[in-house]
Amino acid sequence: TNPYEVRYFRVLTQAIFQKMNDIVAGIQARPPAERQANAEEQVQLRNLAVRAISSVQRTRLLDPKNVGVAVDAAESFRGLTAFVQGADDVAIQNYESATDLEPINPFIKTQLGQLYLQKSGLLIQGYEANEEWLAKAKAMLEKALELNPNYANARFFNGLIIDHDGDKPRAWEEFRALQATNPNNQLVARIVQNLEAGLPALGVPPAPAMPPQPAAASQPKG
């Protein structure tokens, strides 16, 4: 093959990701209790990820101005975050490149904002969010909304950040506006109910189970 032909590396990258997706699909097809990669599958995914990263980097090197290459790579790695350690970081790197190449695209900024938000841990109930990642998510989502104020996904995740910041009236307004354009979305409806009840947007995490308490010792008579 011609080591300078971009299309060869793009096809190779797609083939590697397809192989990885086949492995992941096989894992997800198992009963819920068995949906975890075994040792062999972990090795396969790790080795394929290394090859995919190398192929993506080669493609980006040969065609650094192609935003489609960066977005495709970012989306592919994003889908593997549950199975390949560090896949989210590679996805972020490619989305950051994509938004530099196409700064007026609200979709790219929203996708990048979501990844920042996931890195912050805000979406994990009971987890103390990382404020640095959260600030990056907020800035990116606000830029997406400046480009398209009606972009529902950007408004949804930005609303969660607003609620986290403690501005419940504004968060309620955001989700009420979303509900008006998405009347059948059960998650948005539940968030509106939570905010009206004074609860966090995503609800209160379940209280930890209390351990059994020892019986009180009987007092001696007399």
Report strand %.
under 5%
Oligomer: single chain
Task: Report the mean per-residue pLDDT as an integer.
Answer: 86
Ranges with pLDDT <50 over ≥5 residues?
206-222
Q: What is the count of DSSP helices, taking H or I runs of 4+ residues?
A: 9
Q: How much helix, percentage-wise, in residues? A: 55-70%
Tell me the distance between the termini: 97 Å
Instruction: Tell me the series of helices and strands, N- to C-terminal.
Output: HHHHHHHHH
Protein structure class: mainly alpha
Radius of gyration: 23 Å
Tell me the total number of β-strands. Answer: 0
Overall 3D form = globular
Please characterize this protein's 3D structure.
- The chain has 222 residues and is mainly alpha-helical.
- The chain is 65% helix and 0% strand.
- The protein has 9 helices and no strands.
- The chain has helices at 6-28, 39-62, 67-78, 87-101, 106-120, 131-147, 152-164, 168-181, 186-196.
- Helix 3 runs antiparallel to helix 4 (87-101) and helix 7 (152-164) packs antiparallel against helix 8 (168-181).
- The longest helix has 24 residues, at 39-62.
- It is globular.
- It starts with 5 loop residues before the first helix and ends in a 26-residue tail after the last helix.
- The model is unreliable at 206-222 (pLDDT under 50).
